[in-house]
Amino acid sequence: MSSQPKALTFLTILSAVLFLGALWMVFLFAPLEAVMNYVQKIFYFHIANAWVGMLGFLAAAVAGILYLVKKDLKWDLVELAAVEISVVFFSITIVSGSIWARPTWGTWWTWDPRLTTAAILEMIYLAYLLLRQGIEDPERRARFSAVYTLIGSLSVPLTFFSIILWQTIHPEIIGGGNSGSVGSFGMTTPMLLTMFYCLFTFSFVFVTLFWYRIRLGRLSEQVEILKLKVME
Amino acid sequence: MIPFATSIKFMIGGYSAIFLMLAVYLVTLVLRWRRMKRDMQMLENIKNDPGEANKYQ
């Protein structure tokens, strides 16, 4: 495997700098929310993780379509990378949301439509990672995975729009018209700026990790090819 | 209103969980990369000199 591309090194440094900037924005720039105080600061990273998690699941579906059209295994590798990273980011979303919920809602978890659809979404993709391991033939595995991510991606808009479709306790940040929600707050301009900065930063972090994970997949592929050559 | 002490405790808990999960994933990426590189090197050695295979058994 060739040495690390300069663009990836640059992206890594940029992501680290942006990440430090995000911490500064969250802890020193964004004002304290009047009712929830400090715990509201979880919101900025919670929403950013959810954003990149969902984005990655959709990217996996696109890679799945590209595999089905082009029958090139490199798209399977891209799809797996997108799912793996998104599962991590979405797990962070669920855990951080649960920690935020405890002092705000008085419970770690409730089977509210948003939380339920988010949990189902996460489980769909965890199952994807497990099921893939059970298929030996690379072509069959790639075909199965492509169809799975395509169908699985339907749960992304369902999770995103669940707060509009059903009455839910989960705050609706953009739009904010959900009367039954608990933990809503008025977004001031510095809060909005911090939120968008975090979304921007995590998009960069996602792209960087995505690139690293694709490189790992390619290296793993090369090792498998070499193994076969040695065994001949 | 959420009491100050409770609020700060949960904020620290939340960010600790976020950093810990991100760090664990980064570590798994690095470890997997290193393992693949090691395997690659071992296979290259065996390919160039089949006698090397005895070393790894």
Describe what this molecule looks like in 3D.
- The complex is a heterodimer of chains A (232) and B (57).
- In chain A, 75% of the residues lie in helices and 0% in strands.
- Chain A is an all-alpha fold and 232 residues long.
- The two termini of chain A are 22 Å apart.
- Helix content of chain B is 79%, strand content 0%.
- Chain B has one helix spanning 4-48.
- The longest helix of chain B has 45 residues, at 4-48.
- Chain B is rod-shaped, with a radius of gyration of 23 Å.
- The A-B interface holds A 1, 34-39, 41-42, 45-46, 49, 85, 88, 91-92, 95-96, 99-100, 102-104, 209, 212-213, 215-216, 219-220, 222-223, 226-227, 229-230 and B 1-2, 4, 6-8, 10-11, 13-15, 17-18, 21-22, 25, 29, 32-33, 36-37, 39-40, 43-44, 46-47.
Give a quick set of tags describing it.
A: 232 residues, mainly alpha, 7 helices, B: mainly alpha, 79% helix, 0% strand
Quaternary form: heterodimer
The shape of chain A is globular
The SSE order of chain B reads: H
Largest sheet of chain A, if any? none
Cα-atom Rg of chain B, whole angstroms?
23 Å
- Alpha-beta content class of chain B: mainly alpha
Q: In percent, how much strand structure appears in the residues of chain A? A: under 5%
Largest sheet of chain B: none
pLDDT below 50 for ≥5 consecutive residues: which ranges of chain A?
none
Helix content estimate of chain A: over 70%
Secondary-structure map:
The complex is a heterodimer of chains A (232) and B (57).
Chain A: H1 6-29, H2 42-70, H3 74-105, H4 113-133, H5 138-152, H6 155-165, H7 189-231
Helix pairs in contact in A: 1-7, 2-3, 2-5, 2-7, 3-4, 3-7, 4-5, 4-6
Chain B: H1 4-48
